[in-house]
């Protein structure tokens, strides 16, 4: 009887339990109401969605000490343990989630291309679909501000710096030979296939203490962490063919790529400005292996390529043409591990090895050289809170260079050097709040070949002024050992130095992105020499200096006109330097004061086609005319290149691609080469440095075969 | 003895109570969704999901409601937030049961929303993934009508665009219709959607 009594009390008590009214308001740190927050008592269904004024109210049968949860997308879930009876007229302040996508970003000097679209300037596919880039990562980056048109070298020239001043890193590890082999005035390409990288960050100044040995810029390429699917890619091109395959297993995947390029058939149809004995031919392969482990990800990337070409070209020095024959072999291996350990510790370590050999014949002169380069990296970071992250790391760069220059019956010159550079760095990332961030770092390095120690401070900060705009500032000191061409002759040199000061403003709203950047860069201790050419005889010393200052504008719009995406970049640069054998400080021959690029991509749905147009203009570049008294006082005419591309989707997996560079056939001149001595009339003869072909045509067919067997079998059922 | 009865009774009433509570809560959330109040529906599903950790259905609906909202808000910057919300809820359940075909369908729908929102950048990247997820789901349960239908509809889009034969796809939509009639689940509030879409799709197959 008693138990029935209790039972019925129990049963009824559940119904009779007093209802408590809960109410309050949700606001953000600025006191503004937050609409759409989910406010509820943990473990019950009782709750409410906050209204436009931030208010909420609901009733609950819960009593005693319970936890009130407030969740909202970009805010941290707030937990408020308290007595239910006290949950009245609450004022709940939501703290911002500092990891959310819209927090302020330190980005003075940098361009991101990656999946996190809110901060991306370029998307991964842009590399392939930019007209004129022909799948070359470097060519696509040359449409961004801060770079120079460098048709004769094909390399990245950043803000008044030479090509060597920009270093390339794959998964955080240095690539010693990032460009395909080439000789003077024949453009090279970036070695890397754009399809293997999920993210590209191009930094034209003010970069983190993690990166050293670069005076002007760093290009950071990150391979895909995970393969999308099993597939085979086949490409047939007018210049060669390629095949790729990806296999995916549960925790690992392997992608391999191989390609064979031969320009011979193309040359038959479209003759070039060079007279080829053996058109450019190369065979290359790449492989990426990824393995996800319990605590982290292990990736290995390897690339091999062998290329050769042989041509004759007009020489300003000789009556007859000069013959150049080049054979290059290159191997790059990189293995890295990124792991997360408990309590927000992160470890990033890896090793890279690059091996390159060149066999070059200039007429009868034989040059053989080889470079072995290692990079060993270890970096540890610890996030102490959402506000503070500290990292520290070390690098060991080791490189060995050997060269033999043989002039039959005249001389044989052997040079070699071996450098080891050890560096340590530490950096603090401080996020004061969602609107203000600071990064402070310092890097110390020791170079055993030059026997010198360098300390380089780095600082960057960003302040968000509104939801869509922010200012950033960066300062840094950068050092870099002189290039191999100098080091092989002289070990008394010291590192070259640069200091960067950058101010950046950016505005980003509804798929429109505006970025303005002004910078000033001061160079010190640049290498100089006497005489016409750098050699072991010519007093090499660090007595040069220089500066670069400029203003850059980038605007990208993907929403104003349906199906049209375009970006415009403009760079103004004022730069002078005294280096090499320059008698005075002046604007070097690779710097054009104004550069304007426009890239457009238009998707025509009816035609299943994407049409791309890229136009690049740059003002004239200085060159030195020895027939005139003053040094570097002449200027070339301006440069213009309009490229067109057409990608047609034959089916979901087959693409036909067509492109032409320099559609208008503009006769572009990069500069002039002058004879080293005057002819009988007292005149120095000259020869224009021009593109290897005025126009370049490309037709390719790309076919992806994905693992669809299961579909087919089921279709037959 | 009395104590045991008491404990049993207590357990029992609570069990009934909790079950009723769950049913009522879910019914109420579904009703909110039907009455075009998806934000509140999603919030209620979320509350239920936190209270009933062993049930996967509430988080399934959090994901489905927000994915549906994403499809209705294409070309709008909210898409990313909605997709993030859906993915977060879905991940909680996929981590517990990565082989649940209903969860896999929602995962494919989330990717499809991203493709629809930015075809130029996500099309190539995610299309293969979507197909792969559907294939996986179909292998796990070839009789699930939502798997068959969603996959067919995804393929229909590209088949129409490229002008390839849609008949095999229509046949599979037809097959999904028969599966909708026979598909049974013992689980309360198990997903039921799809039959109307299938009927509508089949009507456009020229039948």
TrEMBL record, chain A:
<dbReference type="InterPro" id="IPR037066">
    <property type="entry name" value="Plug_dom_sf"/>
</dbReference>
<feature type="signal peptide">
    <location>
        <begin position="1"/>
        <end position="18"/>
    </location>
</feature>
<keyword id="KW-1134">Transmembrane beta strand</keyword>
<feature type="domain" description="TonB-dependent receptor-like beta-barrel">
    <location>
        <begin position="324"/>
        <end position="663"/>
    </location>
</feature>
<protein>
    <submittedName>
        <fullName>TonB-dependent receptor</fullName>
    </submittedName>
</protein>
<dbReference type="Pfam" id="PF13715">
    <property type="entry name" value="CarbopepD_reg_2"/>
</dbReference>
<keyword id="KW-0472">Membrane</keyword>
<keyword id="KW-0675">Receptor</keyword>
<keyword id="KW-0798">TonB box</keyword>
<dbReference type="InterPro" id="IPR036942">
    <property type="entry name" value="Beta-barrel_TonB_sf"/>
</dbReference>
<dbReference type="InterPro" id="IPR008969">
    <property type="entry name" value="CarboxyPept-like_regulatory"/>
</dbReference>
<feature type="domain" description="TonB-dependent receptor plug">
    <location>
        <begin position="116"/>
        <end position="218"/>
    </location>
</feature>
<dbReference type="InterPro" id="IPR012910">
    <property type="entry name" value="Plug_dom"/>
</dbReference>
<keyword id="KW-0732">Signal</keyword>
<keyword id="KW-0813">Transport</keyword>
<dbReference type="Pfam" id="PF00593">
    <property type="entry name" value="TonB_dep_Rec_b-barrel"/>
</dbReference>
<comment type="similarity">
    <text>Belongs to the TonB-dependent receptor family.</text>
</comment>
<dbReference type="Pfam" id="PF07715">
    <property type="entry name" value="Plug"/>
</dbReference>
<dbReference type="InterPro" id="IPR000531">
    <property type="entry name" value="Beta-barrel_TonB"/>
</dbReference>
<keyword id="KW-0998">Cell outer membrane</keyword>
<dbReference type="InterPro" id="IPR039426">
    <property type="entry name" value="TonB-dep_rcpt-like"/>
</dbReference>
<keyword id="KW-0812">Transmembrane</keyword>
Automatic annotation (TrEMBL), chain B:
<dbReference type="InterPro" id="IPR011990">
    <property type="entry name" value="TPR-like_helical_dom_sf"/>
</dbReference>
<protein>
    <recommendedName>
        <fullName>Tetratricopeptide repeat protein</fullName>
    </recommendedName>
</protein>
């Amino acid at each position: 009887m008693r138990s029935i009594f209790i039972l019925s009390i129990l049963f009824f008590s559940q119904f009779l339990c007093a209802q408590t009214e809960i109410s309050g308001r949700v606001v953000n740190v600025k006191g503004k109401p937050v609409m759409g927050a989910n406010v509820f008592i943990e473990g019950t269904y009782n709750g409410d969605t906050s209204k436009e004024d931030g208010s909420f109210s609901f009733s609950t049968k819960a009593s005693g000490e319970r936890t009130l949860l407030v969740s909202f997308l970009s805010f941290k879930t707030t937990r408020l343990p308290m007595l239910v009876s006290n949950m009245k007229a609450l004022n709940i302040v939501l703290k911002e989630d500092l990891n959310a996508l819209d927090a302020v970003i330190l980005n003075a000097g940098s361009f991101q291309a990656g999946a996190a679209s809110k901060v991306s300037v370029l998307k991964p596919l842009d590399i392939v679909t930019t007209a004129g880039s022909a799948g070359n990562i470097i060519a696509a980056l040359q449409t961004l501000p801060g770079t120079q048109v460098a048709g004769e070298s094909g390399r990245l020239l950043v803000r008044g710096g030479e090509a060597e001043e920009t270093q390339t890193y794959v998964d955080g590890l240095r690539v010693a030979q990032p460009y395909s082999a080439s000789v003077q005035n024949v453009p090279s390409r970036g070695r890397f296939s754009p399809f293997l990288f999920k993210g590209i960050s191009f930094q034209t100044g003010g970069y983190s203490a993690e990166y050293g040995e670069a005076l002007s810029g760093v290009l950071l390429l990150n391979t895909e962490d995970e393969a999308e699917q099993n597939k085979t890619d086949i490409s047939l091109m007018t210049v060669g063919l390629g095949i790729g395959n990806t296999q995916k297993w549960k925790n690992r995947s392997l992608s391999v790529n191989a390609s064979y390029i031969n320009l011979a058939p193309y040359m038959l149809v479209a003759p070039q400005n060079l007279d080829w004995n053996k058109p450019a031919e190369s065979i290359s392969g790449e492989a990426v292996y990824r393995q996800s482990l319990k605590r982290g990800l292990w990736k290995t990337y390897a690339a091999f390529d062998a290329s050769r070409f042989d041509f004759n070209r007009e020489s300003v020095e000789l009556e007859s043409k000069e013959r150049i024959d080049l054979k290059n072999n290159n191997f790059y291996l990189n293995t890295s591990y990124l792991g997360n350990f408990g309590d927000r510790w992160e470890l990033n370590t890896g090793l890279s090895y690059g091996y390159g050999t060149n066999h070059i014949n200039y007429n009868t002169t034989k040059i053989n050289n080889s470079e072995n380069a290692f990079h060993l990296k270890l970096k540890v970071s610890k996030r102490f809170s959402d506000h503070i992250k500290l990292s520290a790391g070390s690098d060991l760069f080791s490189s060995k260079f050997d060269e033999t220059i043989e002039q039959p019956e005249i001389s044989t010159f052997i040079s070699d050097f071996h450098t080891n550079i050890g560096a340590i760095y530490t950096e603090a990332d401080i996020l004061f709040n969602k609107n203000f961030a600071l990064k402070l770092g310092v890097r110390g390095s020791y170079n055993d070949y030059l026997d010198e120690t360098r300390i380089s401070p780095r600082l960057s900060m960003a302040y968000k002024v509104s939801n869509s705009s922010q200012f950033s500032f960066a300062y840094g000191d950068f050092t870099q050992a002189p290039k191999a061409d100098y080091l092989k002759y002289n070990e008394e040199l010291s590192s070259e130095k640069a200091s960067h000061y950058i101010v950046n403003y950016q505005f980003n709203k509804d798929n429109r992105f505006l970025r303005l950047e002004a910078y000033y860069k001061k160079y010190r201790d640049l290498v100089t020499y006497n005489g016409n050419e750098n050699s072991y005889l010519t007093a090499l010393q660090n007595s040069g200096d220089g500066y670069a200052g400029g203003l850059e504008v980038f605007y990208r719009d993907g929403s104003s006109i349906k199906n049209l995406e375009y970006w415009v970049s403009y760079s103004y640069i004022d730069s002078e330097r005294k280096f090499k054998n320059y008698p005075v400080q002046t604007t070097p021959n690779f710097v054009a004061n104004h550069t304007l690029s426009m890239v457009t991509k238009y998707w025509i749905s009816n035609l299943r086609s994407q049409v791309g147009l890229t136009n690049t203009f740059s003002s004239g570049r200085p060159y030195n005319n020895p027939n005139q008294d003053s040094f570097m006082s002449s200027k070339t005419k301006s440069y213009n290149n309009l490229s067109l591309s057409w990608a047609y989707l034959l089916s979901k997996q087959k693409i036909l691609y067509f492109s032409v560079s320099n559609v208008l056939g503009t006769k572009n001149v990069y500069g002039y080469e002058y004879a080293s001595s005057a002819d009988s009339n007292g005149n120095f003869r000259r020869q224009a440095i021009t593109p290897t072909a005025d126009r370049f045509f490309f037709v390719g067919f790309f076919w992806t075969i994905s693992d669809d067997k299961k579909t087919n079998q089921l279709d037959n059922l | 003895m009395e104590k045991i009865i008491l404990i049993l009774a207590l357990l029992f009433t609570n069990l009934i109570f909790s079950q009723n509570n769950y049913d009522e809560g879910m019914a109420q959330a579904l009703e909110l969704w039907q009455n075009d109040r998806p934000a509140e529906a999603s919030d209620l599903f979320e509350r239920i999901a936190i209270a009933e950790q062993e049930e996967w259905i509430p988080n399934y609906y959090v994901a489905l409601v927000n994915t549906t909202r994403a499809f209705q808000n294409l070309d709008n910057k909210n898409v990313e937030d909605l997709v993030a919300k859906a993915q977060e809820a879905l991940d909680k359940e996929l981590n517990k049961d990565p082989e649940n075909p209903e969860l896999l369908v929602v995962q494919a729908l989330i990717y499809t929303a991203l493709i629809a929102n930015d075809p130029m950048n996500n099309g190539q990247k995610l299309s293969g993934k979507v197909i792969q997820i559907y294939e996986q789901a179909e292998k796990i349960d070839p009789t699930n009508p939502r798997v068959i239908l969603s996959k067919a509809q995804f393929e229909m889009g590209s088949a129409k665009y490229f002008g390839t034969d849609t008949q095999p796809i229509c046949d599979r939509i037809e097959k999904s219709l028969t599966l909708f009639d026979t598909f049974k689940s013992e689980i309360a509030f198990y997903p039921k959607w799809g039959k109307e879409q299938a009927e509508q799709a089949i009507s456009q197959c020229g039948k």
